[in-house]
Amino acid sequence: MDVAPPPSCRNTNPLFFPGTRTIKPKFIRALRWIFTCCDHDKDGTLSDLEMNDFHDLKLFNFALNAVLHPPAPLYFPETMTLKPRCVKALKSIFIRSDHDKDGALSDAEWNALQVKCFNRRVQRNLSEGVNRTGLTLTGFLKLHELRLKDRRLEYTWSMLRKHGYGGDLKLRDDYIPASFKREPDQTVELTNEAVEFLKNIFRSFDLDEDGALQPADLEDLFSPAPESPWERAPYKDAAVETALGGLYLDGFLSKWSLMTLLEPAKSLANLIYIGYPAETTSAFRITRQRQVDRKEQQSERNVFQCFVFGPKRAGKSAFLTSFLGREISESYVSTPEECFAANVVIDSEGTKKTLVLREIPEDGFKLLMSNKDSLADCDVAIFVHDSSDLTLWNRASEMLFDVAQHGENSGFEVPCLIVAAKTDIQLPSALEPEDSLWVPISEGLEAPILVSMMLGYGRDVFHRIIDAAKSPHLSIPETEAGRSRKKYTQIFKQSLIIGSAVGAALLAYSQCTAGDSTSC
After folding, report:
1. How many Å apart are CA 23 and CA 26, to the nearest integer?
2. CATH code at 302-477
3. CATH of domain 75-175
4. Beta bridge partner(s), residue 404
5. Ranges for the EF-hand domain (predicted)?
6. Are strands 416-421 and 380-386 parallel, antiparallel or unpaired?
7. Measured between alpha carbons, how far is residue 175 from residues 87, 115, 271 in Å?
8. Domain-wise residue ranges, the chain
9. Can you tell me the distance from the alpha carbon of 150 to that of 170, in angstroms, rounded to the nearest whole number?
10. pTM
11. Which superfamily does 188-286 belong to?
């Protein structure tokens, strides 16, 4: 269908009466016919339209086609070439249809794509953009450009919509089939199948086989996606990078784990964009509730999230920077927003785990504590303080008390560790705070871990964080109120058990006295 308006419509306006904004009756009839077809999802007929209406229906053909198959997102009208985002979407479709990953669509793959989108097989070959194995990406894109030049926009739009794209040339929300409904203390992780797929993708783009993907490689990898998902916070600079800003395999997988933890739907969409071949439900798993982990006294998670608390100037940002192996600045720069750092850590059993550090700014601490479920997805919390400044230590202990109290009230208690930073300035001789908050909650907690990120001292702290997260029943601080509540609960449960036993004994005795005493 030609989407260009007919010449008779360019200088006149047959839709309205001259000098008014009143629609002509014949167009009202045509509009009713169009809306009837749309409302009832049927082709409809022109039997209720007058014959002399047909001449001006070309305008409606133009308008209707522009609504159903808008040209603006697809191509530049001046050059009749595809727009970058359209190229990205079509490239993603090509990659998803290239099942053997040989860079071309074979006859079988091309026919399968045609049947999926148009319910018909290929009728003729394209001489341009074809190699010995089939239709190449260049030929695939050229085919769509030829269709656009012929004003066959419905061809491209049908293929895009069949593969889940909306009008913005992004995957629609309803196309993401996996359900991520979960309890607050459950998280989403990549499955082994998804990790293996990502490893293979990494190797296929590591053309120089140096074990790293440089920025140009990453740009090429995400070229089927509307945009790179890691160009902005919280993913930018959130993993170990090469000197040129690229990613090693562990850093590459760490960013995927971070994105899956924070935004599983976004992670799934990008897996689809780059050609994840299996059922999308096989890409993720929902972890067991952390409350259950605490009862079982072990965690089976592969990705642990650690909240990093502490007052300003305590060294939280330096702690994250050191975790990523970067040089630490000696000048202080305030961090007003939450920051993330993800890296692979080998636990005491030699198993690789992904540790995600989440820096909580002091200014955002009260807001975090105002949310009942704010600690639900926290596997372990650390409290960083400047070991040379007792005032900062007192503030850190106050935050520790608030977190302990919040965990007791919400039911989401977390293991806690204390990190005494900047030990290169002054080794702490007395770490107890001036107030009385520290003593009631110190039982069950490990001694403060001494670290100096400037000197690289105490880097085993990251292994200790993993070990604490794997044992969610240990290192949990208790307030005096929480301890009293737990003691009361235990007494109440014991009373119920004793009461039940006494009741059962009385019932048995009454049955014996009511019956034959010799049978008792």
Report:
1. 8
2. 3.40.50.300
3. 1.10.238.10
4. none
5. 193-228
6. parallel
7. 20, 19, 13
8. 7-68, 75-175, 188-286, 302-477
9. 25
10. 0.78
11. EF-hand (1.10.238.10)
Place of tokens 């965990």: 407
Q: Token pair of 33, please?
A: 């016919």
> Which tens digits make up the pLDDT trace of 460-516?
899 999 999 999 999 999 887 756 666 554 554 555 565 565 566 666 656 666 655
Closest CA to 89 of 179, 146, 158, 152: 158
H helices present in 98-168, as ranges: 107-118, 137-149, 153-162
Using CA atoms, how far apart are residues 169 and 271, in angstroms rounded to an integer? Answer: 16
Order across the sheet with 416-421: list the strands: 339-346, 352-359, 303-309, 380-386, 416-421, 449-450
How far apart CA 470 and CA 348 sit, in angstroms, is: 10
| Residue corresponding to tokens 């839709």 | 15
Phi/psi region, residue 54 (left: phi>0; alpha: psi -120 to 50; beta: rest), is alpha
With CA atoms as reference, report the closest residue to 289 among 412, 398, 393: 412
At 191, phi and psi to the nearest 5? -80, 170
Q: Give 263's Cβ-side CA count (13 Å radius).
A: 13
Task: Annotate 357-392 with DSSP letters as a single string.
Answer: EEE--GGGHHHHHTSTTTTTT-SEEEEEEETT-HHH
- Indicate the angle between helix axes 153-162 and 84-97, nearest 10 degrees: 60
* E runs forming strands in 301-351: 303-309, 339-346
CA distances from 48 to 44, 51, 64, 86 (A): 10, 9, 19, 39
> 310-338 pLDDT, tens per residue?
999 998 999 999 999 998 877 777 888 89
The CA distance from 163 to 161, in Å, is 5
In 117-262, DSSP assigns E strands to: 130-131, 134-136, 188-190, 212-213, 247-248
Q: Is the distance from CB of 87 to CB of 161 less than 8 angstroms? A: no
